[in-house]
# Entry
Amino acid sequence: MAKAPQPDAMLCFNLYAASHAFTRYYKRLLSPMGLTYPQYLVMLRLHEADGQHVGSLARDLCLETNTLSPLLKRIEAMGLVRRARSSEDERRVDLFLTDAGRTVAARCAQIPWQIVGELGLSLEQVRHYSEMLLDLRGRLAARDDGDTDAQDAPDEKDVQALRG
# Structure
């Protein structure tokens, strides 16, 4: 019987540990704004394209709508976003940044650049790591047994965004 590898030699453990390290790193940057990491992602997406509907935001961020809805209620209570029924489809809820939300979202948009600088990464390294992870996500999604949404698979838009 083959000896089991040590955790630090396993891809899954290193991804898990890196995720936790990033979460701690982001917490330091986001705490002054009162945001969690998922809330930060929402603010980034709305900064990029205000007026998105909840369903597309959930898909883009790989979140279930039942996870996203309470998160949105909290940032709405903070005065950062406003939810409104779509004039085109009353079943759809659209999200809009408030004035305060635009200010916070602009601060959020600077964080990735701050992290690249603090970690001493080149843009080429960031692209390389991201492309590797997108490839891995795609491979895992292709093997998905249906317990999670296939929405986790990167699409061509994700890959093109990384390539600049």
Summary: Strands lie at 81-85, 93-97.
